[in-house]
Specification:
The protein contains 20 helices and twelve strands. The protein is of the alpha/beta class. Among the domains are: 164 residues, Rossmann fold (3-Layer(aba) Sandwich), CATH 3.40.50; 110 residues, Trna Endonuclease, Chain: A, domain 1, CATH 3.40.1350.10.
Length: 472
């Protein structure tokens, strides 16, 4: 079985549950392929006395049959339950007869798939927890699901029978660059940080995708095999993700496609216009589901416009829409030939920016300001003469604002006279518009750092290379 990488806080939560003197109900959620099931099985395998998983788009009868077959392996259970209420009473009977000095764990995976229409699954589970499981002092119930919006609405923020019943929650997120490097090394994949960064920009920190990278392959070879070959795993993953996670997935895909057209993001009205969806509760629900599942993020730019913007935050989703979706299956290297195209340059700049925004902690550490209270975001000034945009602002409590320029480049970045003038103009516009009295530190975040010349010396206060993003 593969080695467990990272997940220190999550492991601590699960192990603490085994040591508590009361019952535990733990909700685990996160986007598909992020490693939820692997984490639970790896940490709790010696304590799990029964586990079962929901079947995607299966009728109630098939779900109950699957439950029965699994429980029959543990005890003599011939009759298939006619309802989830009966199924949980059968499970209760099994737990009562399973005597153990150590904490016993029941693991229910793909929980949302079990709660099909008119199944009354959630009602039966409420009854099981409130009238039996919660009264046991050596029982842990783990419920897990990829549909993050369902888990939050119906479990974590439940207004029904599970209201305030969750004892712990784990939102499992993709790996950061440090964890990604650890996983690749554990799999004997030895690549430079620049190569790992490129792969991260394509597939993000999704363990299931990273596990498919083989040793002794170059980055173009890996990307061609996984993304552009006829049987490439990531060639068809997009539809698998969205149609397995969401009802009415076409709405979610329409929003994702609209957001993929604009780097800075879109306001809600702009998004409705581009996606051609109708305003109302449906789009509100769809946006909520996409954001909670980790595919998009919303933010309000600092100091500038007050409208909330939405943008894609999932690296694979952006890469798929930009390159894979309309690609043809041809012989030879597709990705190698894209390096010189303008579309690659635009995508790499946006994707590197997305990666940096996920590594704010590492950026602050490199700047030596981890202990200082900060507010981070972007800044956009438009519809005015001399308007400007800043990729990342770090507004600090010590009377400093870092204005960050994020540049993906295959070598040291050399600051030209014209670029230096553009930065000076941007700083001037920012000061004039925001009326800030704080010190402004221009900070460059690049792949290989900034070369020293008179323009960098005069205009840049801080320079961070990609190696800083790989810090733990």
């Amino acid at each position: 079985m593969p080695k467990l990488i990272g997940r220190k806080e999550e492991i601590k939560i699960l192990k603490n549950a085994l040591q508590s003197n009361h019952s535990e109900l733990i909700a685990v959620y996160g986007r598909r392929r992020v490693g939820k099931t692997f984490l639970i099985n790896k940490v709790l395998e010696k304590n799990i006395i029964f586990s079962f998983s929901g079947l995607n788009n299966a009728p109630l009868s098939l779900q109950l049959q699957n439950f029965n077959l699994l429980l029959s392996k543990k005890k003599k259970q011939k009759s298939i339950p006619k309802s989830w209420l009966e199924a949980f009473y059968q499970l209760q009977s099994y737990i009562e007869k399973h005597k153990s000095k150590k904490k016993r764990v029941i693991f229910i995976d793909e929980f949302p798939w079990l709660d099909s229409r008119k199944s009354y699954f959630l009602t039966a589970f409420d009854n099981f927890w409130n009238n039996f499981a919660s009264k046991q002092d050596n029982l842990v119930i783990i419920i897990c699901g990829s549909a993050a919006s369902y888990m939050i609405k119906n479990i974590i923020k439940s207004k029904g029978g599970l209201h305030n019943r969750i004892t712990e929650k784990i939102h499992l997120k993709p790996f950061n660059l440090h964890e990604t490097e650890l996983l690749l090394r554990a799999n004997k994949v030895i690549l430079t940080k620049y190569d790992i960064l490129q792969l991260y920009m394509v597939m993000g920190g999704i363990p299931h995708y990273l596990e498919r990278i083989s040793p002794s392959e170059s980055v173009p070879t890996i990307i061609d095999r996984l993304c552009f070959a006829k049987e490439g795993f990531l060639r068809t993953e997009f539809d698998n993700i969205f149609y397995s996670l969401f009802d009415n997935a076409n709405n979610h895909i329409a929003i994702i496609k609209a957001l993929a057209t604009v780097r800075r993001g879109l306001t809600r009205p702009e998004m409705i216009a581009k996606s051609k969806l109708k305003s109302g509760g449906t789009i509100t629900k769809t946006l909520y589901e996409l954001e909670e599942s980790g595919f998009i993020e919303s933010y309000t730019p600092l100091y500038g416009i007050k409208n909330r913007l939405f943008r894609i935050s999932d690296e694979y989703t952006m890469f798929y829409l930009k390159f894979i979706k309309h690609s043809k299956i041809i012989e030879g290297s597709i990705w190698q030939n894209m390096y010189t195209q303008n579309a690659y340059k635009v995508w790499s700049g946006f994707s590197f920016e997305t990666v940096c925004l996920k590594h704010i902690k590492q950026i602050k550490s490199a700047l030596g300001i981890l202990g200082i209270q900060t507010e981070t975001g972007s800044w956009i000034e438009k519809n005015k003469k001399g308007g400007a945009q800043i990729d990342l602002l770090i507004d600090r409590a010590d009377n400093v604002i870092n204005i960050c320029e994020i540049k993906f480049y295959n070598n040291e970045f050399s600051l030209s006279k014209s670029y230096a003038n553009a930065i000076s103009n941007k700083v001037a516009v920012f000061k004039n518009t925001t009326k800030t009295k704080k010190n402004i530190f221009v900070t460059f975040i690049t792949t290989f750092g900034v070369s020293n010349n008179k323009y960098s010396y005069q205009n840049i206060q801080n320079s961070i290379s990609m190696s800083s993003l790989f810090a733990e």
